[in-house]
Amino acid sequence: MATKKKVVTKELGINDQTPREIVEELNKFIVGQDDAKKSVAIALRNRWRSHKIPDDMRDDVIPKNILMIGSTGVGKTEIARRLAKLVKAPFIKVEATKFTEVGYVGRDVESIIRDLAQTAVRMVRKQRTEEVKEKAAANAVERLLDVLVPEPKRSQNPLGKLFGNAEPENQTEEVEDTSKKPGREFVRKRLLAGKLEDQVIELEVADRGKPMVGMFSGSSLEGMGDNLQDMVSSLIPKRMRKRKVTVATARKILEQEEAEKLIDMEEVSETAVELAERSGIVFLDEIDKVAVKGSSSGPDVSREGVQRDILPIVEGSTVMTKYGPVKTDHILFIAAGAFHTAKPSDLIPELQGRFPIRVELKSLVKADFEKILTEPQNALLKQYKALLQTEGLALDFQTSAIERIADLAEHVNEQSEDIGARRLHTLLEKLLEQISFEAPDMVKDGKTEVTIDAAYVDERLKDIAKNRDLSQFIL
Predict the structure, then answer these.
(1) Which of 25, 26, 91, 128 is at 20 to 30 A from 263, Cα to Cα?
(2) Nearest 5°: phi and psi at 231?
(3) Maximum C-alpha span of the chain
(4) pTM to 2 decimals?
(5) Whole-number Å distance between alpha carbons of 424 and 406
(6) What gap in Å lies between CA 449 and CA 441, rounded to an integer?
(7) What is the Cα gyration radius of the chain?
(8) Residues near 312 by Cβ (< 8 Å), separated by ≥ 6?
(9) Residue 11: Cβ within 10 Å count
């Protein structure tokens, strides 16, 4: 059991790429911010290194948490999200402002770890389902054949039943033979050939009912609510109901049911807890919003209380979840905030000490905007081109147009609130508003290509270029 768990943990939570390779992967989606990329790449590599050192030292090597400081829209969340995808680790993003001090209305900070454990269970369960996919599919076919070619009902002798007389000895053999009848094999061939996919059958499925969402939300009883719900559902027998579905739909339902039977959920829970403990990543956003500036009272006391509640989890504690206790000592915490009105030093000293690596993300300039528009795999211009291509309309952005859009993005961010790369969404939506509206009619009239140059950009965005009052165009 232990060996198997280690293999799964390695597959899901550990990445053997070098820091340089990790940065190269992040470069495919994020422009600039080299310092931040380097810091997270080292943190990820240290995860791999910690699994290579002797067991007696491994528990003492704790991850070095990271504090990212930078305006909104510069790539803080995207770096953490791409990092988690890269390593296939349980990842959860939470806003510190969601939580309030215990005793006030708000979520309990321990729900962060409960959500992380839930994410880990989902990941391990998905992997286990993939492992038993073939077996589950074979079992689903057999169950489909039972519905399509039902076994003949056995005729019973009323007097024999009355006097407890058993069925004839050869009856069992006859029943076994019916499953191998030519009719069943004929239907099996047609089923596997996909000729019965649209046939409607009546299938008996478990009635899952509606989950009691939010029954205990907003209180420290959330975890107890989950456990109580699971306990009640395990005591009440599953109700069955009949559904009329196509064979294709029935196959999916039965494959899922068969996979659940083949998966050992206890082993999944154990593996998921280990995965969350050793490889979990928690992204704490808006950490600056709970920072207290100077000594004050009133609502700020609650904000300091949130920090004090977060502190034990970051320091290392044990949180009870419905999958078992989860130790937070080796979970990597990445905190982020703009810190416009507060400073990192406004956080309580104990919390500051738990984020030894601090990275300042730079505000984006014109050159960055040009790269964001064109270079990443999910570049905005590529997205807009693909969207309008579905109508049969090809967009061609001239270099002069891209430079002008980038120049405007930098100008607007300087003149008003700096919202980083999100400003490009505003500008491009305004720029392509008319084309997006008229695209179907343009294609009908035979126009299949539109060229966007600097003159067109100036024409569509002249109000933004001239007016300082930009509230109409601010996200």
Answers:
(1) 91
(2) -65, -45
(3) 100
(4) 0.74
(5) 8
(6) 13
(7) 30
(8) none
(9) 12
